[in-house]
Design brief:
This protein has 400 residues and is an alpha/beta fold. It has nine helices and 21 strands. Helix 1 runs parallel beside helix 8.
Length: 400
């Protein structure tokens, strides 16, 4: 695997070596063996982030989610270990942080989502202490388990912001697991578990929302919708929420808080001519082609696709993008279509999972011949053991 330091033009340039970038690169190398291709990615490590929910619940060590990035750069692709600093789509070029200007025939943008830790005053200084935890950081995820396993009772808050997030169900999965652990350790009867969400419902798709509402009721969880976390006072152990409609501020003291931080498109995208009005990369939601720059193909979390931001969505987007990119190279119509499929494995406790799968219209698109809105051990085992193997050995190798 070459690490390119000198070449400054590629037929295909991929920005980002996460789930989307590597999956697309692997599929392209299988189909376009003679094309020169490069991936710009600064990180030396690659993470399977869906596992972090179970790491935070004490099921797996966090090291199980980590691999060397070098192991997944496809053969025949150049790895440019650098950051993208500037887009120049009018000139078919990008500039890296080190000052290299690289031109391309076709560009795939797979830069992921930006976690805005600094948007909540007190969060950055408080995270990792005072029982303030989050599963959204490899460095911090094991502190979640420390907080959950050592909880002695009181108020445990779990938050969901008013922004798009990686996997919309993840903020409540850790809460259901924590509730189970609190019961196991004998402290649930002296605990108040609060889900403070800026959203207007527990889940966007009615079929699965009904199940989650029953789970929350069964577990006696205090659901507070339209409550957006706006500040944390770590030393006072207070969380301040703003009601998204009345803008009234509510202060809730806590003994433990799991924060899902606000997220947005990477700043480098927001400031570019590639962005839509919300800051994400503009994109045709069916063909995955940029509507203005026709040699640009966005994918995954950084794109403006109106679907949940999950690895499962990327798995369905990648073959569409690859087929349409090849069609564009050949001057053919873009005939592959993405229907908005995404999936959210909703863990509702140890050994219980609801596998939500749906499309742009919010219609269920289920894989199995049974009602996936029911909690099942089999689906939990799928998430915990089968999906990680499929990720490392299938998806990232271009095998679907």
């Amino acid at each position: 695997m070459p690490i390119s330091m000198t070449k400054n033009h590629y037929q295909i340039l991929i920005l980002g070596g996460g789930t989307a970038g590597i999956t697309v690169a692997a599929q392209l190398r299988r189909k376009l063996k003679t094309y020169d291709l490069a991936i710009i990615e600064p990180s030396t490590k690659h993470y399977y982030q869906p596992l972090w929910t179970l790491v935070g619940a004490g099921v797996f060590p966090k090291e199980q989610s980590e691999r060397d990035e070098s192991a997944f750069i496809p053969n025949g692709a150049d790895w440019i270990q650098d950051y993208v600093a500037e887009f120049q789509p009018e000139q078919n070029a990008v500039v890296t942080r080190s000052g290299r200007r690289i031109t391309y025939d076709f560009l795939v943008i797979a830069l992921g989502i930006q976690i805005d830790w600094n948007k909540i005053p007190g969060l950055q200084e408080g995270i990792g202490r005072q029982q303030i935890c989050s599963n959204y950081s490899f460095q911090q995820v094991d502190y979640t388990w420390e907080c959950v396993s050592n909880f002695q009772g009181g108020t445990a808050i779990f938050t969901m912001p008013n922004t798009a997030v990686k996997c919309g169900g993840a903020p409540q999965k850790i809460m259901y697991l924590a509730d189970d652990q609190f019961r196991k350790s004998g402290v649930r009867d002296k605990s108040n578990v609060i889900f403070a969400s800026a959203q207007g419902s527990l889940f966007a798709v009615e079929k699965y929302r009904k199940t989650l509402e029953k789970v929350a009721a069964r577990k006696s969880i205090d659901i507070r919708l339209k409550h957006n976390l706006v500040e944390i006072k770590p030393d006072q152990k207070e969380a301040i929420f703003e009601h998204v409609e009345t803008h009234e501020h509510v202060t809730i003291p806590f003994d433990m808080i799991h924060v899902t931080p606000p997220m947005s498109a990477p700043d480098i995208i927001k400031s570019s001519t590639l962005a839509n009005s919300a800051g994400w990369v503009d994109v045709d939601k069916y063909t995955l082609q940029h509507p203005k720059f026709l040699n640009v193909f966005p994918i995954g979390d950084c794109s403006g696709l109106p679907t949940s931001k999950t690895g499962a969505a990327v798995r369905k987007q990648a073959p569409v993008l690859v087929q349409n990119l090849i069609s564009a190279i050949q001057g053919q119509p873009l005939e592959a279509k993405y229907d908005g499929y995404t999936s959210c494995p909703l863990v509702t406790g140890y050994g219980k999972l609801v596998l939500a799968e749906f499309d742009y219209e919010g219609k269920p698109k289920e894989t199995f011949p049974f009602d996936q809105s029911k909690e099942r051990l089999s689906m939990y085992l799928l998430k915990a053991y089968a999906l990680p193997r499929l990720y490392w050995h299938g998806m990232l190798r271009g095998l679907g």
